[in-house]
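User: Show me a protein chain along with its predicted structure.
Assistant: Here is one chain, sequence first, then structure tokens.
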Amino acid sequence: MKLDSRGRVTISRAIREAAGFKPGDEVDVGFEDGKITIARSGPMRTRGRQPVEHMRGPATLKMTTDEIMALTRGEP
């Protein structure tokens, strides 16, 4: 593997699959005894993360854009 000009490295697909890493995973990078380690981070404990995760995904409400805008504006 080779570092790019910004200090980044690409982890090969075989290693990502063996480690179970998926796009968007949070990882912790450490350095101890001259070795770099990469491990999956635990779940983020931010105050807003749970509601956002709950709302993520396709909309299931069958409303037009005009109907949604009227609701947000308080129009009848």
